[in-house]
Amino acid sequence: MDTTSDFDQLPDNAFLRFSTVQRLSGLSRSSIYEKIGRGAFPSHQKIGTHASAWRVGEIREWLADPLGWQADEARHSNSLGRGESE
C-alpha cells in the first residue's frame, strides 16, 4: 500500500513513518524537527526500540492549517493567559 496515495482512507489513529510525513508535508528533515521543537509540528511517538511514527490525525490537522497549528501543550499554555489579568 502506498501510504501517501491512500492517506485519506487511513484512520486517524494509524501511524505514518518519517518518509511519508516528509512527502505529505513537503518539509525537509531539519525543518520538521525544528518545527517540532517550537511546537509548530506534531511530534512523533516511539513505536518500537528503533522506530518512531506520527499519528495520521495529527498530520491531517497540521496539513489543514500549517501556519496556525500548535502542539497541545502550546495550545494549553496559550489559552491559560487569555482573559486573565496580572
Fold blueprint:
Blueprint lengths: L14 E2 L1 H8 L3 H10 L6 E4 L2 E5 H9 L7 H9 L6
Antiparallel strand pairs: 1-3, 2-3
Structural class: alpha+beta
- What is the β-strand count? 3
Number of domains: 1
Largest sheet: 3 strands, antiparallel
Distinct helical segment count: 4
- Element pattern in H and E: EHHEEHH
The low-confidence runs, each spanning 5 or more residues with pLDDT under 50, are 74-86
In percent terms, what proportion of residues is strand? 5-15%
- Which sequence of strands runs across the widest sheet? 1-3-2
Structural summary, described in words:
- Strand 2 and strand 3 (51-55) form a beta hairpin.
- With 86 residues, this protein is α+β, with helices and mostly antiparallel strands.
- The protein has one domain (7-68).
- It has a three-stranded antiparallel beta sheet with strand order 1-3-2.
- The protein has helices at 18-25, 29-38, 56-64, 72-80, and strands at residues 15-16, 45-48, 51-55.
- The chain contains four helices and three strands.
